Amino acid sequence: MSEKSSTHPGAAGRAPAADRPAALRNVVLVGHSGSGKTTLVEALALASGAVNRAGRVEDGGSLSDYDEIEHRQQRSVQLSLVPVDWGGIKINLLDTPGYADFVGELRAGLRAADAALFVVSAADGVAGPTRMVWDECAAVGMPRALVVTHLEAARADFDEMTRRCAVTLGGEDPDAVLPLYLPLYGTPGADGHAPVEGLIGLLSQRVFDYSSGTRTERAPTEDELPLIEAARNRLIEGIIAESEDETLMDRYLAGEEIDVKTLIGDLETAVARGAFHPVLAAAPATDGAKQGLGTVELLELITGGFPTPAEREAPAVTSPDGSPRPSLGCDPQGPLAAEVVKTSSDPYVGRLSLVRVFSGTLRPDETVHVSGHGLTDRGHEDHDVDERVGALSAPFGKQQRPLPQAIAGDLACVAKLTRAETGDTLSGKDGPLLMEPWAMPDPLLPVAIRAHSKADEDKLSQGLARLVAEDPTMRLEHNQDTRQVVLWCMGEAHADVALERLRSRYGVQVDTVDHRVALRETFGGPAAGRGRHVKQSGGHGQFAICEIQVEPLPGGSGIEFVDKVVGGAVPRQFIPSVEKGVRAQAARGIAAGHPLVDIRVTLLDGKSHSVDSSDAAFQTAGALALREAAAQITVDLLEPVADVSVLVPDEYVGQVLSDLSGRRGRVVGTEQSGAGRTLIRAEVPEIEIGRYAVDLRSLSHGTGRFSRGYLRHEAMPGQLAAKMREQAENGA
Q: In the 8-state DSSP scheme, what is residue 16?
């Protein structure tokens, strides 16, 4: 932050350690896929001395993308932690996937961090999903800075990108998003594009030259100073506007030269409290170089301007039973309170839990209380158990470097927590706590699966349980109506990774099948039926006759059974048998094999035999009577209708409304929801929104969100119902 070189880079080969919260910085990198987050982490690790050579995403040698799936797909699919040391400060760099399907990993990174570094490609600009995350961070006051990458691209323009960031992200205060340095361009090449060879510090008015492969500092030339005058004045005014010294602006306007140290101090304060968002430039090191462009400046910003864990408020806590508990402070001597932000499996170590410690100190081999609540709808059972902590380590690519302890504010990997799942709280066994969970989006893409073979079927249940324990954005459903096992995912890429992990990590091969919605049947009008079950061929005979009247009821009524038999035509002991037969047939369905609902069945008359009548005979007669009644009338097919809420930027409202109409949706209202966003409420048949999570993302360029909830079953249009019956008859 003070625009100087560090003389104390972290040593390679050992995990950096912190003995106090003030010596920690937790930073999450946010940006769309391809913006350069992972490459930037490599550059920062190299500049800090954590590695001797930067790895490459393309060849699978980076510290962040070390998973086999990431190698194959050439993109990040999970949260990764890379700790480095700079100037005696331990920096926990949390690299997150940029693809929207893995938003759960991003949310975990935001939970574990105290500040966010937004990475923006100079060639591509600020993507819609990035703006949404920026607004989420703003809502909770998380400090943010921006890094512009890909300056080597032919169409890259740092000044234009900075302006667009200020307009797009600054909102009503674009002067809160300003650069700290300006790029220094070299001689243009044959294509006319000038390479960036250094940076000019706007406050110090010093040039930091990277053209030789080593960062050097010099005074600007007479030609270089005019390049920064306007930007420097605007930056100083922006800093002074956020200063707690109310006299500073008057002094500046009066022509007084404000001391650079004062400006830097006010800048650091404004950044730490989330009121000012500096923009920097960065590029990976060239071959043989140890410091990439802007990496030192960025490390100085993180250590000098980003808050320590002690400056950020910890999540609220309660007792596991919900009773209130005092708020926590970031004190290594306080009560233990930590949270599992990520769960993974290592083929050699077993289950690994990435933990953020908010209070107290976590030590190896101690017994802690594990509390997990609030995710029962996603296949996670509530639990309160004591577990013994295994070894503590700091991840570094594929390596796990031993840690003696993890103090309040730090992150560490914990081995052998067999019951702990993502989102669980670790606390002292004598004073158990439960942390308020972080916001997690609902998985809205259903993927129906079945075991590939009998051997896979035996392992499927355990594999799925482990999968959902690692990922709270995934929900496991055993649908009793359709008899399908359904994984609810965030999108197609999320589903692909889940199924690949089932195969490669847990040895379970599955096949995907068409997802079915839970349809129902009902009578389209009143009808009568007669069930006759008479058999006299050898042995004990069977004799049961019953006559029923069936009439439809309003939706949600279920099945009513009414006895109006007079004169003992059906003996009293066999009336429940008729009802049992009717209900059993209704459960099996009448027309297309879907449960029959919302009818009243009235038993009017019947006949019995003193010897041959039985419970089984009258059950059969009841079922036959219901089937005969159904043959006399149209049986309506009922489909579930969802209550859908779609939140999109205003510019996509027209497309979304048109798309919903094409899905047989009925829009019930629209309303403004914040600046430039509209909330659309509609009722849409569930059969039409199976892939809506994917389609809405495409329609809104990744900026739309939706939620869904069951509303009711209602009659399906005749033509579509006929098609569904035909598919059922053909076994489709």
A: -
- Reading the block at residue 52, the tokens are 């001797």
Q: What is the pLDDT of residue 568?
A: 85
Asked whether the predicted pLDDT for residue 547 surpasses 70, the reply is yes
Assigned token pair, 271: 């950044």
Distance CA 265, CA 253 (A): 19
Q: Distance (Å, rounded) from C-alpha 590 to C-alpha 605?
A: 22
Residue 106, CA atoms < 13 Å, CB-side half-sphere:
26
Confidence band, pLDDT 50/70/90 cuts, at residue 94: very high
DSSP per-residue letters across 366-402: -EEEEEE-S-GGGT---EEEEEE---EEEEETTEEEE
Mean per-residue pLDDT, 409-420: 91
CA distances from 141 to 243, 270, 300, 463 (A): 17, 12, 22, 39
Whole-angstrom Cα distance, residue 312 to residue 359? 12
∠ Cα 626 631 633 (to 5°): 100
Mean pLDDT of 668-679: 90
Give the sign of the dihedral formed by CA 168, CA 169, CA 174, CA 175.
Answer: negative
Contact present, 688 and 720 (Cβ < 8 Å): no
Query: What pLDDT does residue 441 have?
Result: 85
Distance in angstroms (rounded) separating the CA atoms of residues 463 and 456: 10
Amino acid at 298: L
* Cα(147)–Cα(168) distance, integer angstroms: 15
The alpha-helical segments, DSSP class H, found in 649-714 are: 653-662, 692-699
Task: Give the tens place of pLDDT for each residue, 99-133.
Answer: 888 888 999 999 999 999 999 998 887 888 888 89
Residue 671, C-beta contacts closer than 8 angstroms, at least 6 positions apart? 678, 679
Specify whether the CB–CB gap between 616 and 578 falls below 8 A. Answer: no
Is the model's pLDDT at 461 over the cut of 70? yes
- Closest among 471, 490, 481 to 515, alpha carbons compared: 481
- Within 10 Å of residue 658's Cβ, how many Cβ atoms? 10
Token look-up 């100083």 returns 236
pLDDT value of residue 499: 93
Q: And the tokens for 305?
A: 């301007």
β-pair type (406-407, 434-435): unpaired
Whole-model pTM: value is 0.87
In the chain, % of residues over pLDDT 70: 93
Residue type, 498: A
* Predicted pLDDT at 380: 63
Q: d(Cα 705, Cα 442) in Å, to the nearest integer?
A: 10
Nearest-5° angle of CA 561, CA 563, CA 568? 150
Give CA–CA dist 470/101, Å, rounded.
15
pLDDT of amino acid 10: 37
List 407's β-bridge partners, or say none: 361
Q: In this structure, how many other beta carbons lie within 10 angstroms of the beta carbon of residue 66?
A: 18
Short-list 288, 221, 278, CA closest to 3: 278
Order of strands across the sheet with 207-209?
181-185, 196-201, 207-209, 216-218
CB-based contact 474:506 (threshold 8 Å): no
Residue 720 makes CB contacts below 8 A (sequence gap 6+) with none
Q: Is residue 28 within 8 Å of 116, Cβ to Cβ?
A: yes
Q: What CA–CA distances, in Å, run from 532 to 347, 543, 545, 565, 623?
A: 64, 8, 4, 16, 10
CA distance linking residue 275 with residue 501, whole number of Å: 42
What average pLDDT score do residues 506-526 get? 93
Q: Which of 61-70, 199-208, 487-496 has the lowest mean pLDDT?
A: 61-70
Q: How far apart are CA 638 and CA 644, in angstroms?
A: 18
Find the mean pLDDT for residues 433-443. 88
Structure tokens, 381 = 């059972």
pLDDT digits (tens, 9 = 90+) for 466-490: 888 888 889 999 998 889 999 999 9
Rounded distance, CA 644 to CA 662, Å? 15
